[in-house]
Amino acid sequence: MANDSKSEKLRRLVGVQRQLERLAEFELSVSIARQAEVATSIDMTINAISSVDPIHKQFSKNYSDRLTRLFIKKQQLAAQQTMQEARVLKEKTKADRLQDRMKEAEILEERLMEDERMYDLVDLGLLMATPASSKLDDP
């Protein structure tokens, strides 16, 4: 792990960041599902309040209290959804930036490896051109 290149470290970070992004998206989907449940409950409560059935008339006060609580919960969930959407965007932006940095690091590492290969070829050429001993040059 100590010998890992910068691009490998960044690759792992990108993986972690993408996982955080997926987690944020999952939390957002749960929030949206809760909003749908609250909307369904609101519709059912409104239908019960507006019903002509005498049993519902007896519980009209309970229904109105429940409707008030549901509207408050709907507002809270809308605020929560806004925050979660911002978090998803933030996590995605972080992951994209890390991925860009990883690609730049890979390009830089490839250049460095290519430069090292060129230096090795030059060194090999110089070794072949020079005699093994300086005594060979003297008659």
UniProtKB/TrEMBL annotation:
Instruction: Give coiled-coil spans as residue ranges.
Output: 72-118
Q: What is this protein called?
A: Flagellar FliJ protein
- Determine the domain of life of the protein's source: Bacteria
The organism encoding this protein is: Rhizobium deserti
Keyword Coiled coil in annotation: yes
Look up keyword Coiled coil and say if it applies.
yes
Give UniProt keywords alphabetically.
Coiled coil
